[in-house]
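Re: the 185-residue chain
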Amino acid sequence: MNCLMTAWRRHEAELRAWLRGRLGNQHDAEDLLQDLFLKALRQDKKFCRIDNPRAWLYEVARNALADRLRLKKELVELPDDLVHEIDDPVPVDTLVQCLPRALAELSVQDREAITLCDLEGLGQEEYARLKGLSLPGAKSRVQRARKRLREHLSSACQVRFDAAGKVCCFVPRGPLGVKRLDATK
């Protein structure tokens, strides 16, 4: 431990200045310097076997600096007049009008798989245990149910998808048992 303290006293000021120059902020430099000291301290007796403590400290400091800079995100204030209100709802958000009826028209097994796994957030592993299925069997069941729902939405609600596979438009259908009035009659 004595060798760590000797090396630290010898190189601390130099490391602090180097970090301050790279970060441009005294507080960030001090934080990183403290992290560096803790990493050196965790080496315990292994630190004393390091041939060149200065090189080790700089290597660890460079890596920590790179990690910090990689994670640092610059925030830019946006002006208030930049706010843009969306007049038309996003098609996938309004698809909720068609989904309950489309789900009701699926088989009980498909409806249950989608409701439990996609709408209620049950994991497929838990779904497999609940239904007494193997995990691959449960995954296949959920995937087939999703495929049938997509096909049903495409035909029953005339859902169309763009090149990226996202909903671009559809014809809403009311809940079961509700007839639409035709304005032309």
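Confidence is low (pLDDT under 50) at residues 178-185.
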